[in-house]
Specification:
Layout (H helix, E strand, L loop, with lengths): L3 H5 L4 H17 L4 H5 L9 H37 L1
Length: 85
């Protein structure tokens, strides 16, 4: 069996279109891959309300970090002052 096309003959255009149509139907039944929505930047895994809540939390975290950095700098300055004495 050298070539399958020689043995079976060339498939008709009608058969090819039918097979493609069946394949597309089967693909539509497949669930979307989890990585498409979870990790891609352009995917929208959250609703608009959830995005607003996330942004508010980010602002709160940023202000906490700022306060802790300021407190850390003050403590560092106190240690330096004690070390000089």
């Amino acid at each position: 069996m050298e070539n399958m096309e020689d043995d079976l003959g060339r498939p008709s255009e009608k058969l090819r279109k039918k097979l493609i149509e069946q394949e597309l139907k089967m693909r539509k039944k497949q669930p979307e891959h989890w990585a498409k929505t979870k990790y891609r930047k352009y995917a929208k895994p959250y609703t608009d309300l959830e995005m607003v809540q996330i942004k508010e939390l980010d602002k709160k975290r940023a202000s906490r970090r700022k306060k802790s950095r300021a407190a850390g700098k003050k403590a560092k300055e106190k240690r330096k002052a004690r070390a000089k004495k």
